[in-house]
Design a protein that fits this description.
The chain has helices at about 10-25, 30-60, 65-69. By secondary structure, the protein is mostly helical. α1 (about 10-25) runs antiparallel to α2. It is elongated, with a radius of gyration of 18 Å.
Length: about 70
Amino acid sequence: MTAERPSYEQARDELVDVVRRLEAGGVTLEESLQLWERGEELARICQEWLDGARARLEAAAPSDEADDA
């Protein structure tokens, strides 16, 4: 079963929770590794959302080259 990709906001909020739990401590080494791996995945998802948003903005913005012509 493939999980649906979370929205940027969902991924960011979960990432904040993961970081909070890691910083608080009190989890086993195995749990810490699982949290770290999940955090890496969430950070990748957030970056993909941001890269996509940047690409859309750049595509919609007038080109600087058009101004120089």
